[in-house]
Amino acid sequence: MIRNGFFSIVFVCCCLTVSSQQSEWRNLIEKKQFEKVILQLDELQPADSADFEKMYLIGQAYEGLLKYKDAYNFYKHCFLLDSSRMDMLNTLARISVNLGKAKEAEKYYQMVLEMDSANFYANFQLARLYVSVERYEEGLGYYDYLLESDSDNVSILWAMGDCYTRMGDLQLAYTYYFFAFNLNRENATLANSLINTLLKIDPGSSDVAMAYCDTALYYNPGHKALRQQKAMIYYLKKEYSNADSIYTELIDEGDNSYNTLKYCGCARYQKHKWYLAIEPLEVAYEMDPTAYDVCILLGICIGRAYDPGQALAYFDKAEKLMQPDSLWSNSLEGFRGEIYLKTGNRNKGAETYYRIWMKDKQQINLLQQIQRSYYVSNLEQLSEDDRQRYLFITFLYVSELFEHQDFEEMRRQNAPHLRSVLKKYEEEMFMRNLTNYPMLSPDNKRNALPVEKLKELIVKLSVIP
C-alpha cells in the first residue's frame, strides 16, 4: 500500500512537470521568444513524440522563427497523431503556402470545407491561394460566397479589388476598392490602391483622386506615400508650384526616391526654375542613366542656367539613348506594317513594307504581302489611285521574281495568280485604248507601264511550268 502511494506521488509529479513545461513554452511563444523553446529540444524524450500539445508548440516556435520546413514537419506529425482536428488542417494549409506547396495547401483547405463548408478562414485563404496561382475565377467564387453573408467586410472587398487588378479589369478593381475605402477611410495603403487605379482608368479624374487623397491624409497626416501621391496629382493637374512644394518637403525629410527627385525637377522645370531643377534631376539621372527624358530636361536646365556647352553634351547622351537597337528598330517597322495591313490600312502598310524593302531587297516576301493586300476579283472595286498602286506593286513583284534565281520556287507557286492580275490590266488597257497605264508607288511617285512591257511579263509568267 505504501509502495502504491509512492508510485502515485511520482506519477503526479511527472504530470505536473510536463504541464509546467508546456505552460512555460506557451508563455514563451506568446512573448515571441521562440528561440528559447528551440533551445530546450535537446531535453526531449522519445515518449514526447506522442505528446500532441508539445509537438504543436515546437511547430509554432519554428514557424515564429520563419523556419517553415521544420514547422511543417512538426505540424504534419501532429496531424498524424490526431487527424480529426480542423485547426490542424488550417495550420498545415497555411504553412504549405509558405513553403510553396500550393497543391497540398489546396487539399488541406478543401478538407476543412468538407467538415465545415462555411468556415470563413478556409474559404478566404483558399480564395487567396487561387488568386496567387492565377486561378482567378475560382478565387472570386470563394470571395463572392463570403460576401453573401458579410457584404461589408473590407478585407474581402479589398482582396477582390486586388484580384481584378491582376486580371486587368481596372474598372471592377476600382469598384471594389471604392466600396472598401468607404468602409475604412483610415487605411492609407487601400487609399493608394484606389487612387492609382482611378488615375490609370482616367488620368483626367485628378479632382476625385485628390479628394480621396485628402480624406486618407486626414486620418494619416504626414504619410509619405500619400503625400507623394498628392504631389503627383498636383503635377497631373499642372499645378506645378503645389507639386514642387510637397516634393521639396519630402526631399528635405530624406525622401530620395527616384520619382520624388524626377518630378520635383520636372515641376521646377515647368515653372522655369532652371537652376533649382538641376540638383534633383542630376540625382535622378545618376539613379537611372537610361532615362533620356530626364537627360534632356537636365541638359535644358543647365543650358538655360549657366552652361550651354554642357547642355549639348547631355543632348548627345539623350540622342544615343533614344536610338533603339537596329534589330528591334527593323522589327518594329515590320510589326507596324503588319498591323496596318491587318486593320485594313493597306496604303499605310504598303508604304511601311516598301520602305523596309528599299533597304533590303532580298525581303521580296514584303512585296508579296503588299500585292496580296490589294487583291480584288474585279479592278472596278478599287479606286483609280489604288488600281495604279496595285499595278505598280504587281509589276515590281513580278520583275523582282525574275531578277533573282533564288526565287524560282516562289515564281512557280505565284505565277498563275500574278498572270491573272496582269491580264486584267491588259484587258482594261485594250478597252480604254491605252498604250501606257499610270502607276503609283507606295511612296506616292507616279510613272507609267507601257503595254508592250505588260505583255512581255504575261508571256514570261505563262511559260513557267
Report on the structure:
The chain has a domain of 137 residues. It has 24 helices and 2 strands. Strand 1 and strand 2 form a beta hairpin. The termini are far apart.
Short description:
The protein has 24 helices and 2 strands. The chain has helices at 2-30, 34-38, 52-64, 68-81, 86-98, 102-115, 120-132, 136-149, 154-167, 170-183, 188-201, 206-219, 224-236, 240-252, 258-270, 274-287, 292-305, 308-322, 326-342, 346-359, 364-373, 384-403, 408-431, 451-462, and strands spanning 436-440, 446-450.
- Count of separate DSSP helical elements: 24
Arithmetic mean pLDDT = 90
E-strand count: 2
Q: How far apart, in Å, are the first and last alpha carbons?
A: 118 Å
Question: What's the layout of helices and strands?
Answer:
Blueprint: H1 2-30, H2 34-38, H3 52-64, H4 68-81, H5 86-98, H6 102-115, H7 120-132, H8 136-149, H9 154-167, H10 170-183, H11 188-201, H12 206-219, H13 224-236, H14 240-252, H15 258-270, H16 274-287, H17 292-305, H18 308-322, H19 326-342, H20 346-359, H21 364-373, H22 384-403, H23 408-431, E1 436-440, E2 446-450, H24 451-462
Antiparallel strand pairs: 1-2
Helix pairs in contact: 1-3, 3-4, 4-5, 5-6, 6-7, 7-8, 8-9, 9-10, 10-11, 11-12, 12-13, 13-14, 14-15, 15-16, 16-17, 17-18, 19-20, 20-21, 21-22, 22-23, 23-24
